[in-house]
């Protein structure tokens, strides 16, 4: 098996990896990126489903850079195109865009550059692409790849349906041999199917990345005194840019007024404003001249600002897709960020009316079902991130530790029996019933739907008589949230049992449920939830690191203003934070910072080094936390370092020896333990978030080799496959440590 794999076509991944370092300043691909790039460079159609901030751009930009010719990127949003092209140029990559905002002369220049092969990436709007003569023009360009960004716009199931997108199927007919990569942050099954069929993709490989955004702290707050809470929060984060989403234009304006009255740099943004007014507000926000935008959901689609530190929902969003997309606008740079949702039951009622008014019955039903999931999220008493991920068909093995519930867990009881009753009823009714009918069956109701379906004949009919309707409603939603079943929307909302559900049904897994509480009671603010919100702040104010970060941020702003680009195009917050922590004052040091590529070093390096020197940087930096001193170089986490989970005493002893510089062999001898035990200790501690000198076990180039091998083998490969594939060069301990390292890099 390994033979066939090693004779795979020329491996371009090393070239891609070099380009990543050179142009973007990043040391490693996030694992999914490596796979994707390999696939597209192999000339195969590729579908990428990855959350906002996951790093989709790199997936087509790097192949574009290392391939001959020009990658044509179809993107629906003019503002976004401009930002992406600016960011590419800042990284030293030749790129341009053509859309309705570009004049004829400039378009002609760009077209010439494309034909003569001087562009690595050409962004076009779908309207432009399909306009008269454009495809003929493209015939004269040597096209390396078609990248379809925001590909969910093709699906009428989705929230951003764009009719022009459905014409993109023509690309395959005109350019049968050019590979297509479609990218979206929507993971919906139906959307995925539409993308593949409508683009006429040929046996595409689909990459579904984790939708987790671990750097976003998820918080739900009770709906009382929202304005007070907002002002209080901003007061505690005076430098952090954020977005407040509201339902109505009126609310946007009122809140923005109230914030302005408190001296906060805020502005409102909604579809009732002229394009000019909106453009101004957006520009000022991008430039960090406005701290807070109070917007209807219209805002954000077209912006790429990576240093949005928090997003608030003043009102309940109408579904989880929308909520997730909106909170995804926070923390795209991977640095700690916060999402706060204000919630009261009245919001649900208001929203229910809105989503069912003036729409066909079928749509109203769908909207209501989706709203109910949103409500369940807001009322949840188990890890919120689990619920979110579950909604996108993902399971998280452990609670996240970065949501309000994880910080303040509610009480639960053993609900296995209750769950089994519900699961059994679903099973016996052949997975054809929706929630309401299921509850009727469980409670032994004799209504038409029950009798017509013959459900009064099944064994579990009436098995749940003892519980009132609302209790069942809550428990079944908890089971949904826990991934025991899912809703097949296209089959009349029937509940389908998952693998996990079957395990509970068979008694192989217990199921804790939380006691049902009427909403008012559940939404009383707790001390702990207040504490959690406080803990969500990004940097400890007043520390030398925070002071330097502040200075760096000011320098970035000055440079950005001078050059007329948004500050995050100069450097991301994450990059500045790393500079503040490591204080590089040499070329090598600066290039070692994640996000500093060659071009950016040449353009900005000196100014930043000078500032760090003035601040008293340059090697004298003494790390304040005990972890940093034995970890060199520090793994570049894409998320806040997880609060360490406790390690056992014995593991701790091993770690202490490791910190003193002992090898696993030495430790094994010193402690009189088997070498394998010592390695297990190290592995466990690393898995629990402890920092180890990973390079004692695997060097950077070895890590890259292992990563490449994993990319080649694909997701389903076992450790054993990897071991064989690498011809036993590494032992299992090294492979496992490397896997953890890569996982952490990805910020999982
Ligand atoms: P998306 O398009 O999926 O929303 P982006 O492509 O904008 O995400 O990437 C989000 C952020 O992550 C950007 O700041 C990007 O530069 C950064 N990023 C992407 N790939 C990597 C990587 N391999 N290492 C470090 N940072 C990365
Ligand atoms: Zn959690």
UniProtKB/TrEMBL annotation:
Xref: SMART domains: DEXDc (SM00487), HELICc (SM00490), HRDC (SM00341), RQC (SM00956)
Keywords recorded for this protein, A-Z: ATP-binding, DNA damage, DNA recombination, DNA repair, DNA-binding, Helicase, Hydrolase, Isomerase, Metal-binding, Nucleotide-binding, Zinc
SUPFAM superfamilies linked: C-terminal effector domain of the bipartite response regulators, HRDC-like, P-loop containing nucleoside triphosphate hydrolases, Winged helix' DNA-binding domain
Parts forming coiled coils: none
Domain Helicase C-terminal: 226-374
Similarity field: Belongs to the helicase family. RecQ subfamily.
NCBIfam families named in the record: recQ, recQ_fam
Protein name (database record): DNA helicase RecQ
Native organism: Hymenobacter mellowenesis
Phylogenetic placement of the source organism: Bacteria, Pseudomonadati, Bacteroidota, Cytophagia, Cytophagales
GN (gene name): recQ
